[in-house]
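Progress narrative, work stream C.
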Amino acid sequence: MEAAASPPVEPVELECRLCLATLRDEAEGLEAQLCFPCNCRAPVHHGCLLQWQRAQEQFLEQHSFDEAQARMNTCEVCGARLMLGEARPKPQLGAAVCRAQGGTGKVALRRIPTLSRATRNFSDFSAADGQKLDVLEQDATGEFFRVRAVRAARYRGEGITAVAEGWIRHVYLDWQCESTQTQSWLPPPRMPPAFPGEGAERVEALSAAETAPDSTLRDHDER
């Protein structure tokens, strides 16, 4: 007796995770196509993504230009860079060691690669001084790297998570290699937007504040 044939498997129609539809109303050509611009498994329509990016421009009026650009070009779900029509570049080196440079011995991981120190831009977790990090990608400015920390501690309070990912400034990374190897692809640290033209001493002071106790943290956004 022959076994019953299995019913045909119907193809699953992918939905845009922004509009929750397979087709984008009144869209044609590229804007109607689904794409995978980040590391999320769910796609988005080109047109929906462009509309979402335009919505982030409101931060230009309320906060810093630096933060607005970071929000426009970073996935708010997985934290990866948003890239359309181009291959995701690999970092020059795949691992680095965190150097907290004093303070609490931890560096808070950021949700987006911005110099803004507003609380909304930081995750709950951190990288500890001396902790080895997997380097996943570099942002367009070269200032930040997205890293993965295993057994990452909470920045405030107690607790550890198995794995945490986030953005960190390159001044907190030790590449464990000759300095001449990194000079060509690591730019000088940028001045946070709230402190234009105040000199290198101010940059060092602000960098130290990223690892300082909670009572010393302030929102340094431009208003």
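Work stream C, second folded protein:
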Amino acid sequence: MMRLSNCVLPLLVVAGLSACQPRQPGTQQAAAAPPGAMQAATGPAAAAPAAPAVHEIHAAPAAPPPGAAGNAAAPGKAFDLQSIPVTSAALPPFPYVAMPSELGPKQIYTEKDIEFDRVYVIAGEDMRPAEGKVLQRKFFLHTLKWSPLAAHRNYETALSALGARRVDAIHPFDERFVDRNGGDSAAIWKKMQIPHLDRMEDPDVPGFEQWLLRTPDTHVWISFFLANGQVHVLTVEEKAMRQLVQTLPATALSTGR
């Protein structure tokens, strides 16, 4: 019995010591991974999701600002002479408007005095011919100690009292007007009997004014403008040309006379 105890006791001690020793690292089993987890980690890298297609947007060109298409405007509506009322004023004889009474005969210069000729005038934005009796007079502003504004106001008042109406809607030096009428400014001004126009610093002074006086019998065109420090008044009374040249009688032709 003693011999059996002596054999068993060492075995129990060894078994107890073995149970008390800590386990070595790596001896604990790893937790079971879900099926396929290792394959996903060690296999080929998964392709990144395709980026959504980007559609390139081209903005439409910005519209040009107003007026960028060019300065040449299309001609306006043709001027209607019937839009000007026939005057009811008692009219003086041709040339209808006098020179200032303060001027002496030698201070008034007559540029043109012709029974029949053609002068071009402005009606609305159009240039049109006027044929008839023509008189053009001028005088210096400094003779009366007038400013351009004083000249403008004086003639505006006098012409309005006759029943005349201002009818120019464009300046004769305007590039659009020149382009519409052939492009040769010198030729245009010659047709209008305008030697030159002064540059006006005052916006209330046009420098050129076209007036129309409609009478019961005819049309009277009066151009008022300032050139080289002078006031110009050009009057055209429309009328038919008086035919003075006659043919020879048939009897004279037969006799050779």
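The chain has a mean pLDDT of 77. No further action is required on this item.
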